[in-house]
Amino acid sequence: MAPAVAAFVLAGLLAACAGGSSSSGSNGTDGSDDGDGSTQATAAPVILEPVVEPVRPGSFGQVIPEPTSVTRGQGQFLLRPETTVVMDAGAEADGAVAVLQRTVGESLDLELAVQRDDVPPDPAVPTITFTSVGADVDLGREGYELTISDEDIRILARGRAGFGWAVQTIRQLLPAETFGPTGQDGTYALPVGTVRDVPRYAWRGAMLDVTRHFYGVDDVKAFIDEIATYKLNRLHLHLSDDQGWRIEILSHPELAVIGGRTQVGGGEGGFFTQDQYRELVAYAAELGIVVVPEIDLPGHTNAALNADPQLNCDGIAPDPYTGTQVGFSSLCIDLDYTYEWLDDVIGELAELTPGDWIHIGGDESHSTAHADYVHFVEKATAIVADHGKIPMGWEEIGQADLELPAVIQHWSNADTARAGSAQGADVVLSPAPVLYFDMKYRADGPVGNKWAGYTDTRDVYDWDPAAALSGVDGYQVIGLEAPLWTELVTTLDEVQLMTLPRIPAMAEVAWNPGEGRTWDEFAARLATHAPRWDALEWTWTRDTGIPWP
Ligand code: TNX
After folding, report:
1. Which atom of ligand 1 is nearest to 483's Cα?
2. What H or E segment, with its residue span, contains residue 415?
3. Strands 203-209 and 477-484, bridge-based pairing
4. In this predicted structure, what is the pLDDT of residue 56?
5. Which residues of the chain fall below pLDDT 70?
6. Nearest Cα to 328, choosing from 346, 310, 305, 309?
7. Among candidates 332, 237, 350, which has minimal Cα distance to 292?
């Protein structure tokens, strides 16, 4: 369809929707949602032709990140109690189906029983089919095609992630209350149409610092739920720092037992046992998220130096540290023990990590001499590679000779980041003035830091990652990641306050290349997510400039 025709049809559709305003979101129920969530199958507006992108509020739900292409049809699919899931034998959809069952299924009291595709489906039963048959290469590892007719739903993808993201889209096409606890009343409808959706960047991440303040399994799962809703696919866990060591290491138990006892301000700290950590990795994997563990080295190591005296050049352990300074600690670079210890730690971490990457930190090693720093990074990255993983580090590691593959994470100094990319390393962008979500939204924000400036939701949304690091080839930038440091962030409520709504804004920048995206349109769509967060009892910031309900 020619763009002009698409625009004409879109205009007609918007006029047909109740009120005709660009924020008349009825979650795709064509205005027939009577306001209490129940939906009648009648009263669809008259639409002469399907609408082709761009997607706009009221045209096909309020999905964030905005899908890269949508074709809107007429009518709706009703989710009925007998709705059955069909899994094609070749489809790696178990995780996605489990997520569908425990979100939409539990909320609406639907069993969503699974049937293999070798059993011919009863034509009277509405089905949701997951299949890879005919999925084209352009869908990549994470893309999906979601086709909703008035009789059934078909999800086409090449792998786990694509099926998972299709399920997140389905969730968002339903009304807000379907995000709530079990037993929602009513019949819920999905709009008829096709979404074909492929992400812009392969790395769409968030980092949670569990060291400065410890967050336990349930808190981390809640954070995983939040980022998965917006199709982020990497959870970087900052597991060690001066103030705490948070992962059990069986060959050096004192690291967690002693190093886990502290946190900023003197609270009791904590750590993950390896079983708990495996549970988190599996929980994330089901939602399409790879966990990237970080052990910060050779600085940011006071907790380890305190727990194991042998790591110190003089054999004397320093006192525990519960303040917020950085740059004062360093492993002893000349000791053989340092590398034996590191090999043990990285070896156990590699065993716990199905993902490709292990992050060795490398930031702010201000008390390590430059030559020592370079020597250490070369040894540490080699140890990671020996354990079959790709070394990743903050941009400073680009000062060392890097064996490829390697990933550097840009946060502060573009020249340092370029030194790594010039060696061929992949680059993840986390520039502090835009993506450090420990910064306050604005001066009067209740929680947060300000050293990198204030960052409101619009700053995140309007940022252009393609222009962020001049002189670095576009293909080397594999994606974006928002770090949440927690010196000043002390509870899960505050984690959510700092990341909602900035995570959805970043997620859309990372997913959708943006032709036709505008802040005003996004802000209207974003506002419709607040009732979803409320239904989930997630805390969020009522940032300004967004038409919240
Ligand atoms: C800088 S960013 C740090 C962290 C702090 C953070 C606070 C980076 C690689 N290092 O150690 O927690 O600032 O905003």
Report:
1. 2
2. helix 414-421
3. parallel
4. 38
5. 1-59, 183
6. 305
7. 237
pTM of the model: 0.90
- 330/301 Cα distance (integer angstroms): 6
Contact 427, 478 (CB under 8 A): yes
| Residue 363 Cα: closest atom of ligand 1 | 9
Phi/psi at 440 (5° precision): -65, 155
* Nearest-angstrom CA–CA distance, 381 and 368: 17
Mention every residue, 6+ apart, whose C-beta is less than 8 A from residue 106.
Answer: 181, 182
- The CA 484 to ligand 1 mean position distance, Å, reads 9
Closest residue CA from atom 4 of ligand 1:
485
Instruction: Verify whether ligand 1 is closer than 6 Å to residue 485 (CB atom).
Output: yes
Q: Look up residue 498 and give its amino acid.
A: M
Residue found under tokens 């002893």:
332
Q: How far is the CA of 485 from the centre of ligand 1 (A)?
A: 7
Alpha-helical regions (H) of 267-390: 274-286, 302-307, 336-352, 370-386
The rounded Cα 70 to chain-centroid distance in angstroms is 23
**Candidates 207, 212, 363, 430: which one to mutate for ligand 1, based on the most atoms within 8 Å of Cβ?**
363
pLDDT of the residue at 90? 84
What is the sign, positive or negative, of the torsion defined by CA atoms of 392, 393, 396, 400? negative
Q: Which residues on neighbouring strands pair with residue 121, listed in sequence order?
A: none
495 with 223: CB under 8 angstroms?
yes
CA distance 195 to 28: 13
For ligand 1, atom 2, the nearest C-alpha belongs to 411
pLDDT in tens, 58-103: 457 799 999 999 998 988 898 888 999 999 988 899 999 999 999 9
3-state secondary structure of 548: coil
Q: What is the pLDDT of residue 57?
A: 37
- What's the CA gap between 188 and 38, in Å, rounded? 7
> Where do we find the tokens 């034996």?
340
Take atom 6 of ligand 1 and give the residue whose Cα is closest. Answer: 485
Element (H, E) at 479: strand 477-484
Is the Cβ–Cβ distance between 162 and 144 less than 8 Å?
Answer: yes
Q: Please calculate the CA angle 360-363-369 and round it to the nearest 5 degrees.
A: 105
What residues does 128 pair with on adjacent strands? 85, 153
- Read off the tokens for 472: 């670095």
**CA–CA separation, 383 and 387 (whole Å):** 6
> How far is ligand 1, taken at its centre, from the CA of residue 338, in Å?
24
pLDDT reported for residue 19: 27
DSSP state of 401: P
326 close to ligand 1 (CB < 6 Angstrom) = yes
Contact 67, 195 (CB under 8 A): yes
